[in-house]
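To: structure desk
From: M.T.
Subject: fold request, one chain
Message: Could you run this one when you get a chance? Sequence is below, nothing fancy, just the single chain.
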Amino acid sequence: MAADALLEVRDLRKSYAIAAGVIHRAKGDPSTAPGGTVGVDGVSFSLAPGETLGIVGESGCGKTTLARILLRLIEPDSGEMRFRGQDWRGARGADLRALRRRIQMVFQDPIASLNARMRVGTIVGEPLAIHEPGLSRAERTARTAQMLEAVGLGAEALDRYPHEFSGGQRQRIGIARALILRPELVVADEPVSALDVSIGAQILELLDRLRREFSLTLILISHSLPVVAQLATRVSVMQAGKFVESGTADQVLQAPQHPYTQALIAAVPEIPA
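Reply: Done. Structure tokens follow.
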């Protein structure tokens, strides 16, 4: 494995059994298409610090299952994951906790991903309470307010509830929560698909600015080629659990080689330069 890789993934596989014609899978997991059993089928890639990898494909191709595996929210059937050379897939106990804070996720649904009964300050500051219990309440509040400012929300958001914010603002809250521990890698799973186009564009601009400010490495997962084209330095195209084409953003989006990639691009009126 490459010595300079932030994240290295080799031959990840995840399948779902069929019993009596019914696919058994986690609730809400769209990654296994009807009639199929494979969620992720031999995915491999290497991610260097500072890169933005766009993973693009139609609904049901395995993108969300891959994202959940990368975050250790579900376990793969086989394969290897290493984060800065450490065994991320095999990490347990203190090693798992130490690595988990360095890899965070921005979820697709900014409503469902936030606890409606908790104030925003508690939601965003909760990772600090878990991973840095030695912080005083005042220190945790100060860092939470600072992160809310960084995503374009003021300290006045601390005592409010998620339902008091718009969809775009709720996604900013989710981003603040993901960044509060200053992770090295952020996985953004369809972060703008639930938002209006103009609001989604603002969230993408925010992610790009924060990537630079916090020296983040980003995995951007989307069904939309124009979304991926805005931020990605490299692109991997996913179909039926496999990466069918990978390369620099220019290579994949301007000179696609695989018929599936060509079909995706042909369906888009114009890919942003």
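Reply (cont.): The chain has two domains: 1-102+184-196+203-273, 109-182. Let me know if you need anything else for the meeting.
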